[in-house]
Structures are given as C-alpha cells and as structure tokens.
Amino acid sequence: MYNLIFSNKIFIVCYLALIFISCSNKYPQLQTVKNVNINKYLGTWYEIVRKPNRFEKDCKNVTANYSKEIDNIKENDKDKNIIKVINKCTKISTNKTSQALGEAYNIDKTNSKLKVSFFWPFWGDYHIIILDKDYKYVVVGEPSREYLWILARQKKLDKNIVDNILKKLKKEYKYNIKDIIYTIQE
Prior knowledge:
Blueprint (H helix, E strand, L loop, with lengths): L1 H22 L14 H4 L1 E8 L8 E10 L14 E9 L5 E10 L6 E7 L2 E10 L5 E5 L6 E5 L6 H13 L9 E2 L4
Antiparallel strand pairs: 1-2, 1-8, 1-9, 2-3, 3-4, 4-5, 5-6, 6-7, 7-8
C-alpha cells in the first residue's frame, strides 16, 4: 500500500512538472544591450525590416519618433525615462498617412527594456537587443519573438548589415525570420 501511495505521489509530481515545463516560455530569455543612452536614442528612426503584425498591415514609409515626455511625470515615476512615441505609416493601398501616439518608459536602469503603450491600459515589451555603437541602427524585439523591428536613422541600411543582423537574430536570438517584411521607404 505504501508503495502505491508513494508511486502516485511521484506520478503527480512528475505530471505537474511536465505541465509546468510545457506551459513555460519556449524561448530562452531575450538578451538586451547593456546600456542605452536615451538622449542619443531620441529622434526619428526609419523602419527597415519587421515581422508581420496586424497594426502595420499595408504600411510603407514607416517611422518612429521618440522624444522626452515631461508634461505628466508623476512623483513615483521620476526614475523612469518617460518617452513620447509617434509612429507613422503610409498605407500602400490608399497612399494616406496615419499615426499612432503612445508613450514608453524604462523598466530597468539599462534603458534597454521598456514598456510601450498606444492604447491605455495595455502595455507591450520593447527590448533593445542590438544597437549600433553610433546609434545608426537598432533592433527591437520582445520575449515571445512574435514582434521584431530593424530601424535605422536613414531610409536605407546597407544590405550586408541587414543580412548580418538577420543571421544573428536567427542563430543567437532564436527568431524565425522566414516571414520578415522589408519595409518600403520612399
């Protein structure tokens, strides 16, 4: 009888462990850059490559502009770098430009992990995983590897740089890059 109870307990522990493992994130933790100088990061970035997503469907000429947001910093948010975000795109089908206004804040002292929101109270992860030392290009992702952007200060980024980034994303960051979209920039 003792062996049966002991066996059942082991079975239950193993079963629960299996459930826990299968429900955990299938990717390793997403490594971010060691430090981001927010003041250097501010300004306009042009989207070079992205993974498909519903909010950028049919978009070209995509830009993201980051600026200091100082109007409504609350007392308990003084350590956060509050950033105003303006994303713009031109719809390919209509040639009309639209924009989304949002804000972001850092979640640690490195400034490489941010939370961003375009629709309160929903916040998404914004992790800076690759950053050129001169802030000429950046790669932004998030832990599930569902979203990805390569951004640059110019409308075009050297093909060799993009190819090297994509290889690194696949090999080191475990991104599926088969479905990436090269953004039209005119």
